[in-house]
Amino acid sequence: MFDIVPHRSSRATIHITQSRGVSLPGAEPHTDITSLSRRFLDVGFTSAQALTLREIRRTYVEPRELRRIAQLEMLDEVEELELVLDHYAISWGVRFPDENWVREGGDTWGLVRKDQVENEDDDG
What we know:
By secondary structure, the protein is an alpha+beta fold. It has helices spanning 10-19, 33-42, 53-60, 63-73, 78-85, 99-106, and strands spanning 2-4, 47-52, 88-94.
């Protein structure tokens, strides 16, 4: 699910997209990043997570891939990009089949941090 993280520009972004006929289901502002995953738990999901796009970029995308993307996008202002990415989040939830599944290691789902991945080259 795609979300807009609470910020003073959130309402403006939602208004602009709606005025152009674009619907962003789930884009209503929430009080904080925790509330984005909490809404899954409130309706019976076993586990949930929410990350800003900035956090995903910094924590989960390999440096080599960031350099490749920067060349494609001709990105000059990384700081400005990160400010924008901090306003958006992706949240998801999962319902495990049963309690045994969770106890047997089934709760190890989600994104893998780049520092937890065995890297073929030492980009850093």
